């Protein structure tokens, strides 16, 4: 049994970013269960996407948005999407926001109906590794989490698990404790995904 994993990272610190390292750890865990997992890496900070602008809108209308088409195809092909999401200045990295701009496309990843918008990318799991210098989880100051839920839900990605590594800049003890808790949450989240995936496969086989 193999699966397709889309590994999206957006830390400006590349592979040493905490969110990137947690994505790597998630992949390690996935590979213990799916040794043949097909991993597609998208490092949005290393290979920055061009801003979404009027030319991009025109290219989409003319069927010439090759880069956005590739990004959407990667997303459609994924059984599991890993999102490494650092908090920079209370929001998501602008590189990640740009990826969102490219993959949100009417008629392809969502559509408008008489009853409102419908997301077209269902049946995919998303695991978010959120890294933060301070502590925001479950407080009104965490504007990242509802934003991510809204955006992903809009394109149909409603099965989203958040793993938080918070308090990373609040001293060594806080950082160590947070990293070790995040890693154990990665382990349990992957274990749950493996069960869920096996169940879905069994149901499909019937
Ligand atoms: C430019 C910049 C802005 C940041 N802004 C915030 C912030 O608004 N809130 C916060 O809690 N931490 C903030 N931090 C700390 C980061 O969230 C923390 O370093 C985290 O590890 C970043 O994830 P990464 O290591 O995956 O890049 C900021 C860090 C940088 C470099």
* Residue fraction in strands: 15-25%
- Count of spatially separate domains: 1
Overall 3D form: globular
- Overall pLDDT metric: 97
Number of strands: 7
**Small molecules bound:** flavin mononucleotide
CATH class, named: Alpha Beta
Radius of gyration from CA coordinates: 17 Å
Spatial strand sequence of the major β-sheet? 2-1-3-6-7
Estimate the helix proportion, in percent: 40-55%
> Uncertain segments of ≥5 residues (pLDDT<50)?
none
List keywords for this structure.
206 residues; alpha/beta; Rossmann fold; 6 helices; 7 strands; globular; binds flavin mononucleotide
Lay out the secondary structure.
Layout lengths: L3 E6 L8 H16 L4 E6 L10 H8 L4 H12 L2 E7 L7 H10 L6 E4 L2 E4 L5 E7 L12 H11 L4 E7 L6 H34 L1
Parallel strand pairs: 1-2, 1-3, 3-6, 6-7
Antiparallel strand pairs: 4-5
Helix pairs in contact: 1-6
What does this structure look like?
The protein is an alpha/beta fold and 206 residues long. The protein has one domain (4-205): Flavodoxin domain (Rossmann fold), CATH 3.40.50.360. It is 44% helix and 20% strand. A hairpin with a 2-residue loop joins strand 4 (110-113) and strand 5 (116-119). The site of flavin mononucleotide (FMN) has 17 residues, from helix 1.
